[in-house]
UniProtKB/TrEMBL annotation:
Residues 1-39 are annotated as: Disordered. Residues 338-407 form the Fibronectin type III-like domain. InterPro entries: Cellulose_deg_GH3, Fn3-like, Glyco_hydro_3_C, Glyco_hydro_3_C_sf, Ig-like_fold. One of its GO terms (molecular function) is hydrolase activity, hydrolyzing O-glycosyl compounds. This is Fibronectin type III-like domain-containing protein. GO terms for biological process: carbohydrate metabolic process.
Length: 441
């Protein structure tokens, strides 16, 4: 399943996230009988798969408004993952887990490759295709045909990345480890050759890793990160490329600047960020939570417990809650979804803490000119951490809540001061933040 903030933060309906709520609740389960056909690919399932795929597409770069693509453009589609439906699936999906051992057996359900989906999405465009290379081959014999196509096109869509598999049967998946984050095979060299043609290049990475493109990143017209979006991934990506879908995905990991970097967690202490202690800058190219849109949003009117915060920290008991909200307005010319992320900054604690930690997020869908309030009810227990005695605790002191578009882009900060006794949570999990949208259509 593709990464989905909707499922991760409670905004997906129970009936969508759980295909059998009655059975999960311990209710009656009806035996359909041995001769009953069970449809695992029904219309409702497809609609959910499409929505999740569309919401998972992450637009990382869009220089000079290259995207959306013009409907009648001359498009060169290049890359080993462009015409392979299996590129939409991860290592434990049926096509890559079992199907790889039976290459003559079809996937079993209709799955469109990105090439096929783009041709259906843009019927007036002239779309030509060349693979350029295989996913993990060192053979560059296909570069000439690929660069020739790109040279004669208005734009080149390079579809690169991984072949998911298990224990060496792919370039990504369980048992398919690597020593750096360079694209497999000669895909980096293929991308460099395409960029060198001078034709604007849109890189689409269907991959299980946040690959670093090094110096090529700044020369791309656009970059899309998709990971493995599932059965409806092809139409979802094509919809973002055409503009039918306004991108709203956010990266679930940080994307490093260099291939020899690591996909480090954003949950790093101060010395895990750029400091004078080391000459190596670990700042990621795209921080955790990054993602662009085709529209623009303006954030304003931060409120704490229903009113504007003052100059002093807001006092909250160590067993209390606080409500924080921000007004989000779509100031662009098309419908889109903003993702408001709430991070906790704990400057002083008895053990080393990360500089920021995501504690909630909420998707805010808005038509042009419309506004809605992203609202978070935050228990003091959201600041709990494991102390030196190995118990989770909430302690008095100063905190900061940061309303952000990513782990590195903080739009507004609210200072808190927890008061009262130090609390030990024993074996109980801390209370969760409740996120909701007020006033959205």
């Amino acid at each position: 399943m593709p990464h989905s903030p909707a499922l991760g933060h409670g905004s997906a309906a129970r009936s969508e996230a759980d295909p059998a709520p009655d059975a999960a609740d311990g209710g009656p389960v009806t035996d359909p009988g041995a001769g009953t056909r069970i449809d695992l690919d029904g219309a409702a399932d497809r609609r959910l798969a499409r929505r999740l795929a569309e919401e998972s597409v992450v637009l990382l770069r869009n220089a000079h408004g290259t995207l959306p693509l013009p409907p009648a453009a001359r498009i060169a589609v290049v890359g080993p993952n462009a015409d392979d439906p299996r590129a939409m699936f991860g290592c434990y999906s049926f096509p890559n887990h079992v199907g790889i051992h039976h290459p003559d057996v079809p996937i079993g359900i209709p799955v469109e490759s990105l090439l096929g989906a783009l041709r259906a999405e843009l019927p007036d465009a002239t779309i030509r295709y060349a693979p350029g290379c295989e996913v993990d081959s060192r053979d560059e014999a296909g570069f000439g045909a690929a660069t020739a196509l790109a040279t004669g096109a208005d734009v080149c869509v390079a579809v690169l990345g991984d072949r998911a598999g298990l224990f060496g049967g792919g370039t990504s998946g369980e048992g398919c480890d690597v020593g750096d984050l360079r694209l497999p095979g000669v895909q980096h060299e293929l991308l460099a050759a395409l960029v060198a043609t001078g034709t604007p290049v849109v890189a689409v990475l269907l991959a299980g890793r946040p690959y670093a493109l090094d110096e090529l990143d700044d020369r791309l017209a656009a970059r899309i990160q998709v990971f493995f979006p599932g059965a409806e991934g092809g139409p979802a990506i094509a919809g973002v490329l055409s503009g039918r879908v306004c991108p709203s995905g956010r990266t679930p990991v940080s994307v490093p600047r260099r291939p020899d970097g690591q996909p480090t967690t954003y949950l790093a202490p101060p010395l895990g960020h750029r400091t004078e202690v080391s000459s190596v800058d670990p700042t990621p190219r795209y921080p955790f939570g990054s993602g662009l849109s085709y529209t623009r949003f303006r954030w304003s009117d931060v409120q704490v417990d229903g009113r504007a915060p003052g100059s002093e920290p807001v006092r909250v008991a160590t067993d209390g809650t606080v409500q924080v909200s921000v007004l989000v307005r779509n100031v662009g010319d098309r419908t889109g979804t903003e993702v408001v992320q709430l991070y906790l900054h704990d400057p002083v604690a008895e053990v080393t803490r990360p500089v920021v930690r995501l504690i909630a997020s909420v998707r805010v869908p808005l038509d042009p000119g419309h506004a809605a309030r992203a609202d978070f009810t935050v228990p003091a227990e959201a600041a709990a951490y494991t102390g030196r005695d190995l118990y989770r605790l909430v302690e008095p002191g100063d905190l900061e809540l940061r309303l952000s578009t990513s782990s590195a882009d903080h739009r507004h900060a609210v200072a808190l001061r927890l008061t009262g006794p130090r609390r030990r949570l024993d074996d109980r999990l801390p209370g969760a933040v409740v996120a909701r949208v007020e006033g959205a259509p």
